[in-house]
Structures are given as structure tokens and as C-alpha cells.
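Hi there, hope your week has been kind to you so far. Would you mind checking whether the C-alpha cells look sensible for this chain? I owe you a coffee for this, so here goes:
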Amino acid sequence: MFAEIKGLNEECGVFAVFGHKDAAQITYYGLHSLQHRGQEGAGIVVSDGEKLSAHKGLGLVNDVFNPDILAGLHGKAAIGHVRYATAGGGGYANVQPLFFNSQKGGLAIAHNGNLVNANHLKHQLEAQGSIFQSTSDTEVLAHLIKRSGYYSLEDQMKNALSSLKGAYAFAVLNERQLMVALDPNGLRPLSIGRLGDAYVVASETCAFDIVGASFEREVLPGELLVIDDTGMRSERFVSPGNRAICSMEYVYFARPDSNVDHINVHTARKSLGKQLAIESPIEADVVTGVPDSSISAAIGYAEQAGIPYELGMIKNRYVGRTFIQPSQELREQGVKMKLSPVRGVVEGKRVVMIDDSIVRGTTSRRIVNMLREAGAVEVHVRISSPPIKNPCFYGIDTSTTEELIASSHSIEEMREMMGADSLAFLSTEGLKVGIGRSEAMHNCGQCLACFTGEYPTEIYADTLHPHAKL
């Protein structure tokens, strides 16, 4: 963990296409654009109208696929997935899309999010004879579909989805249909685009730009989209709840060139930085951001504060996501392998270091030390989100309060631990203002649970980690 530049990881990214002769290749490029959402596994399932074919593996998209593999995936419809393991852990069996065969044909499922009642449903399903092939919560949907008793996949989906609680953006493929569904609170992002006559679905709109598709609209909370040779139609499997899109999509997870619910991510982050400068100004000589997700906020802070923005840290893009650390001494070098200070920028300067969040605090401490070693005379840390005090149960890998430094330490204690001259976080109200999802806007709510402890859904007792507290 010491080698990680960031302390948060999101579960996955979903991409799908229907009606394109090169569906597998289009999905491959779409997954590339979503690689930041998951680096532990990738997979594609394609339909040629009569059968499903699949390929998946552990590693990055480039590790899993090559031209020969893609050439063997024939069909005009496909779903793809990149995964970061949270619920159920890692391993090949949990790499998605999950693929199932039955007497009625094949079924493939890709899922972004986390089901808070997955364990509850698994106990029920196992008592009824179900045998699970993975430890992923996604597999619950497949069993509910097959046990629904309805004839059509559309009705099976509606019935199964009505039993699920939590965060989910699903893409489900059989031989003839692509189905797309979003949870009633719209916790995870999901959009529809068009590529000629084909439909494209993606967790982020940046994927549309990569494959040359045009954005059509967001998938609505509680909506089931059915796409087949006749076109696309919209159904409701449940009434929409209060909108609660994940705030961390804007703060950290989504790519800056994506629009999440019609708000550009770079613009939102820049606005968060400006709001942070209004709330927590400081006299300094230079502003710098921790690459890459904090750069937009740092630019906003610098503009608002009237302090020059400089590239004070460089990210080494050729260091793998994991780094072998055989000794404590080498662990201490982990951050330096991925980040390097620009001495000519920070030496002799009072530096404002902008970061998007603090989770465990170890990385922040190392970056502060690194800037001081490069000659910074003062290091003031500003965070463009509120303190993360509460675990997330919707697809982010913070399931216990013990993992979260802000849950047990004051801001002053955190400042001392990281060795900063000052430390300040954005307020919760400032976050809402910065992102632009004000309560005055119709149904534009966002999930703030990791900051406030107020969860938009019921949290089941068997979802909790043994040490989690609510």
C-alpha cells in the first residue's frame, strides 16, 4: 500500500455496443479509455446473434487482449469491463463480464458498483439451491434472473433488479439483446451514445470521444434500457429515488474530459479549487497539485488566490501499479518511484500543495517530506474535498473506519502527522457549490456518505466489515 500514489480505488468501468460489425474492437478501445477505473482485470463478451464468445484475464486491457484475440471475437454486440477488486476480492473467477450458459442460451453481465444486500440475497439463493461460481456480488443478478419465473429476459431483469439494493450500473447481454440498468438513486454514472446506427454505453463519456461516438443522454435512475435489432426502448423497473450520484466521481474517479450528469469533471474540479481558495486562503509563493487528479483543482486554487500555478511534482508514468518492496527502507522510496519534486520550482518557496483527498495519510506525509527535501521552506496542504470519515459501501475500497485517518484524528493531529505547516479541507457545502449540483436544481442530489455518514440506501448488517462502524 505504501507505493500507492492514491488511497482510493473505484470498482470498475463498463462499456457496451450494439449494432456494429466491429463490436469487439470498439469495446477494446472503449475499455482503454476507462482503464483508470480498474487495472486488475479486463474482459469482453461478444454476440454474433446466435452465440456468445468471451475472453477475459487478469491485468491491464493491453495485457489481456491482442489483435489475434480480438479478431476471434466475432459479432455486432459486445459488453466489456475493467475491474478493481472490492466486493468479493480479486482472482480470475471474479473478472467480468461474468458469463453463464443455460439450456435457453448464454448470458453475460458487467457491473459497476456494489450491492449492499448481496450477502443477504446469497444466503436466500443458496438456501434455494443456488451454487455460486465466484465471490462477486454481480453473480447474484444472474441467479435472480434465472429464478424469476418469467419468460422474457426483459421481465426477468425487471423482477431481479427490483430485489437489489445499493449502487449498480449493469450491462447485460444475451444472443439477441443488450440491456442496461441503473440503480434507483443513480449512484454510479452511465451514459448512452450513438456510433452511426450503433448504440454505445459507457461508464464515462470520455469513452464516446475515443471511439468516435456522439453522446445521447444519461441513463436515468431506475431505468432499464432494452436494445435489439428493432432499436432502443426505455422501461422502468422501479420508481426513481432521491438522486445521489457519487461525489467522488467529480473529485477523483472520473477522467477530466468526461461529463458526469452533464457537468464537466475538469470544470467541476477547477471550481472546487476556487472554492477551496475562498474558504482557506494562505500566503504563499506557488501552488502545485498532486498529479493527476488534483491538477484541475490546483489551477482553480491558483487562479482564485492570485498565486502562480507551477508544475511542482512530476509523475513517472512508466512505473507499474504495483512495486516490489522487500524492505522498509525501500518502502520509503515507493512514492519517490512515482512522484518527483521539481526542485527549481519549489526550492526556497512557500508551497501550497493541492490534493483531492486524504484517506490513510501515509502518502500525504511522504509528499510533504519530499517537497521539503527539495527545498520548500513552507508546505501548506489544501484538500479539495471534505475529510473522508466514513466507509463506502457502494463500490469504493474503504469498508472500515480504521482505514480512514480523518475518522479518528482532528485536522490539527493530521497536520502534525504529515508535517505540514497548515492543513485545510473543503467544506461539505463548498463541495456542493463547487461541483454545481445545488439543491435548488431539480433532483440533482449527490452521495456525501463518506463525508457525512448519511447513506442514501439502507446498509445491511451483513454488508459491514467486522470493524466497520456507522
